Amino acid sequence: MKAKYSKSTGGIYVVGASKNIPTDALDIPDALYTRFTQAKLENFDVFDGVVVEFVKPPPTLDEVKTDKFAEIRKAYDTAASASVTSLGKLWNGGFESAIKLDAARRLSEAAGAPSVKLYDINNIGHQLNFSDALQVCVAVASEYQIALSKKQGLFAAVEAVQVSKAVTEAQAIVVVTAITW
Q1: CB-based burial of residue 8 (10 Å sphere; 0-12 exposed, 13-18 middle, 19+ buried)?
Q2: Which residues contact 37 (CB under 8 A, 6 or more apart)?
Q3: What separation in angstroms does the CA of 122 have from each of 80, 118, 154?
Q4: pLDDT tens figures, 22-33
Q5: Residue 134: which of 109, 159, 171 has the closest Cα?
């Protein structure tokens, strides 16, 4: 079966079956078309007037950095919201949890209550004195701050990688790729 590839449309046209084959369509070598029909190659390209296998170019430094930022954000989201153990109990982690726990503690204390009821990760209430409640708040907030600081440091490390006279793009890509959570 004879097939043609048009670079202008990106389309593949089977001779005798396809209507309106573009004028720029070139014959696809039989071996290449067979590999395509067997899903062994994704697409075609044209080089020097000949249809060839499309080879995706390697990613640029900016593309690698964008991917690395996304990877760091995902790891940060997981770490920043991880549960925290304090006073032998497991508490919801993260910024919002720290704020809510601290707000409950402060409001109870401001209202003159002798203690505060804080809810653990299983939504079980624990009546705590203000010193213990503060310990829980500090533990949750500290874990969040550790994750945030790590994310910011990794972002800065990725951003600092640049191509220069001494560093090629390929070397810079290796450096960015090596940065991990």
Answers
A1: exposed
A2: none
A3: 18, 11, 33
A4: 999 999 999 898
A5: 109
